[in-house]
Please model this.
Amino acid sequence: MTSTDLPDFARKLCGRAELLHRLAALPRPLVFTNGVFDVLHRGHVSYLDRARALACSVGDSRGSLIVALNSDTSARRLGKGPDRPLNNEIDRAMVIASLESVSLVTWFDEDTPLEIISEIKPDLLVKGGDYDMSKLAETRVVLAYGGTARALPFVDGYSTTALVKKIRQGQA
Model:
């Protein structure tokens, strides 16, 4: 596939080297979230839509949602299973980039997004409801430069790990 064969939404993909330059062109506030997003499901898209809505609710700006994906190497270290992620980082990034709610997609190789958050300084850090925001180093970094951090509730009943297990048991 050549670059001319790529869909328009592929323009949302952004490597780390060009990240700060690309972010400078996006409307503020910048809302940041991260994850593996291996097999996209209703819980994921609902979460990302709510995160983007937070960007749009601050001031008169449209705001932007930045999604940082765990690279394949980073995702494997999370202990979700030896064959995870099921979809490679480029495929996961393309699926996330296709969502209207997402403004830009990038990757990180580290175990946590702390380094990339320190680099881009988003106005708002958003995580899923399973995180205690007060215990995250990322929250401390965001608060230190004047940003905010917020956990969004899960859509009950949706989990990639549970979905993969269900498929493997022949129940899907």
